[in-house]
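Recall the central idea of this unit: under ordinary conditions, the amino acid sequence of a chain determines the structure it adopts. In this exercise we apply that idea directly, starting from the sequence alone.
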Amino acid sequence: MDTTAPTLIITSNKTALKSGETATLTFTASEYIQDFNNFGPSSGIVYSGGTFSNWSTVSSLLVRTATFTPTANQQLVNSSIVLNAGAIQDYSYNVSLVASSAPAILIDTAAPSVAITSNVSAVKAGGTANITFTFSEDPGSSFAWNGTTGDVAVTGGTLGAISGTGLTRTAVFTPTANLASGNASITVTALSYQDTAGNLGTAGTTPSLSIDTRAPTVSGYANSNNLIANQTTTVYFTFSEDPGTSFTWDGSIGDLTFTGAGTLVPHPSQQVGVSRGFIFTPPANVTYGTSTVSVKNNSYQDAAANLGSASGVISINYDTVVPTVTITSNVSTLGMGQTANITFTFSEDPGSSFAWNGTTGDVVVTQGTLSAISGTGLTRTAVYTPFADTPLVAASITVPAGSYTDAKNNAGVAGTSPTLNVNTFKNAIYLDDIANNIGGYAIEAPNTGSYFGFAVSLAGDFNGDGYGDVVMGAPLNTFTDTALRTQGGGVVLYEGGLNTSLVPKGYSGTGQVNGHYYTYSVNKGWLGFSVAGVGDMNNDGLADLLIGMPQDAASSNPGGAFLVYGKANSTTGSLAEYQKDISALATTPDALSITSTFDTAGFSVSSAGDVNGDGWIDMIISAHFQTVSGLSGNTGNTYVVYGSAALSALQTISLGNVGGTVPGFVISGWQAGEESGTSVSSAGDFNGDGKADLLVSAYFNDTAGTQAGATYVILGKTGNTAVDLTNIKNNSGGFVILGENGQDMSGVSVSSGGDINGDGLGDILIGAVIAGTGNANPESGKTYVIFGRNTANATIDLGQIAAGTGGFAILSTTAVEQSGHSVSSAGDINGDGLADIILGAPFGSVDGGASAGRSFVVYGKSTTTNVNLSDVLNNTGGFAIIGQGAQDLSGYSVGAAGDVNGDGLADLIVGAHGYDAAHSSVLTGRSYIIFGSKTGAFAAGTAVDNTGTSANDTLTSTGAQTLAGGSNSAGTGNDTFTSNGADVLLGGMGKDTFVLNQSTITALQSKFGAGGNTTQLAKIDGGGAIDTLRLGGTGTLNLNLSLIGNSSVGNIEGSSRINSIERIDLLTNTGANELTIRVADVLDMAGSNWANLSALNSQGAGGWNKTTFSTTGINSTLMNYHQVAVTGSGNDKVSTNGWTLNTTGEVMDSAGIYYSVYTATSGAPAMLLVQTDIQRSSIL
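Accordingly, the structure predicted from this sequence is:
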């Protein structure tokens, strides 16, 4: 029996295990053990520190082996393997009585680790990091790093050699230089070290260690490195890295180095980030300077606290002295004809930046012009010329700020104007201006020494183009035709208007004048010594000329005249048609030769108006040296020739037959040597009897004192009975106007004046030399205005006129100028409806030039207060016309010119027969056309409220206005005027229509001061072309023309209240209108022969036809008529009193309207055409 308990011995082949190792355990039994083959961990073995595997039998059933694998990550742990007692039994079932223990196995399976730490988390330039390697177990000598090689992996810098033993080792990390950013890497490679058990260590990871070892930099620039006044620049500093708040500058303290003058302030919106801006403002008024700006070294840092380097130096140059200019003038006040030298003085040379070419550039000029700048450098000059006709006003010559620069381009400050007052307002007309086509033009003489302009006159519309024409004499004109004609004389008819293309220009083709040039092929003929427009003597619709020639070499100074009939311009004319020998012309129907055997016949010539009331214009011609039977010396005779159809058919008449075979009468002087006929003229209708009265002066008459002078007013008359001036001085058939004082020579010039005071009667003008030694201003001259009167047969003493009874005097205080040497009606220059006056003072001095001459326009007025020419010279009550130069004798002859340019305003003509270019008494002569205007010298007295254009204008009055429909450019529009009270309506060229209301009719029928005529006198002048008077509105109107004071009685000056009206429209007004129109009204206001069978022209004439079976003599070759056509309806009435109906038929106009034809019962050349629908009545 086996009772021995089995035992089990456990042995190990190893006493220590590290990671990755195993031990083989051997279990040796003392005897066979039951189920030993299955012996294992579950067989009662208690163990720790590992696991068993691989159980096997080694050599017998008594030995078993197993692999013991230590548990991982155990550090220095002793294993425990114990077989509990009773765990085994042998086959005798004896169990083990005691436990069996294996020897201890020291287990170290934990791999050593290392922690790498840094004493800093970031390293900047110049910095290092202390790196600590902390091991979980002492690696002993297995861990090594000599600063270059070993068990450490380093990037981003270098690591010094490891120092220390045991668990802690250290080294110093030095980052790589100039790294802008990055992270260092310091690691220990896994398995590169081991613990004492031989376990290989795990990897050591890098600590967090950022690197920035690049020092920040900064660069700078300025937007502009060169500054001028009022400029700034922004200085920019651009950092390689944002300096954050480490970079500061408060304008004076901070991280910038700022040298020089000026200010540098932070730009408020550019103080964060990598770009920082600062505004630099240079100091003011520094000629040249430099400031510098830079960033200081080490004055800023980046986010890693790397200190930045200095920037480069930014230099800013500046010139902040603003250039200036001082403008000076050598004078402070400029008058007419003066200039100023203007100097521009600069503080710095503006170079070419300052320029002025006379029109454009860097100067602002007012009230004048500035010539082109001259000069260089600091001083520039120019000449300032003030505008003409400028009232006293401050001129301005300035240089705008910024218009010039200095060399550095600093914009200059403004140059202020010097004190410069301009007073070139021409309260007078200067013939220098007229000669330069300013406000008119000059007409040159045909030849040197011709006395051109010795006589001048309104000619009317000679060629029928609607524009006013003028006539001028050149009595000493010497020329050559078939022979040399010494002082044969000459006459120039200048045709006004813009439509003169059909008129060849010039004297012998020299291109000087548009119109006609008449010569007289004799020696000393003195053709043109006197000239006059006489109106339409033959009633053909064209104005005619009367030309006097008081000497003729063919006999002993017999003299004579020529009447030249108006003629339309030829459409294919040659120069020969416009340049005629007048004696040859008088052999044709185009002229009438008026011969005589009397001394100086033709010394003075004029239209007489309609003296005998037959409707034909008459003419007057003086022979002031003619001896009167029974009297010695130059007593003088004057001849009045009646116009008629018979006269128009003649080629020649003799003054010796006047009163006999030549209808008319002779006016004989009565006092020996008085020279009656010195000056002759129509007087208009002085006494209101409907006939033209006459003026005949005798300036050597001694009745009121030696050579006091006398002017005879011969009242209109019929018949051929001669007039003895003895009867006139005795107030029979007229009256005498006696000179005021001895030596006055009153009557040196006489003229009709038109209606100067607006009372409906013709007024007269008388000039006197005033040569008496008792006169304080000898030969100063005086002009007398004698108002018309109904009771005319009473002697008038000019002393009464000067005292304000029945008129007024125009006085001069300038000795020798002989104001009144020539006198004339001027027409209505200022547009107030009253006739104005023009008078010449040819011997007056102008600016030291002896006998340069002046003329004066005096406005019509109703008062009898005398007018002083010194006031007129200052633009009060009129204006002066100033001659050009010494010896010109401007104003020796003066006159109205009508409307030469067709603008509706009255123009003037002034002769200066002494003119020559050198003003040296050659006496070549020049004539001047002065255009009417509402500006300049005209402005102070003008009543013109509105002017039209060359288009078709509609002009409406707001009450008592003056409206002119034309324009200086070409007043050819067909204008419509609507009146409203006491209006003055001036049509100019074109087919104009004048719409009347009752207030205007009342004003036209009233004198000045009544019927609304308080500030001006209502008047209508149609001007050129065929014009219409229309009744306006819808209510009944009564137009009684017999109540309108039409006082011209054939006077060419057109002094009537209604002029140049050919049509009257009653039709447009739908009321039952009435018209009273006398023969005298038609004669007075209408043109002749416009209603004819020729083709309708642009002026509205022609286009008429006879109706079927009509034999009416419209367009008769036997007689021409003044014609008015009246349109209306069956509601309208026309008075036919004084008219005889032509029963041979009706006529039709271009519009297809039928008219009855009436002619004057008296046989006067007047025709009334009445639309057949209109009612007729002998008296309305």
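The longest helix spans residues 998-1004.
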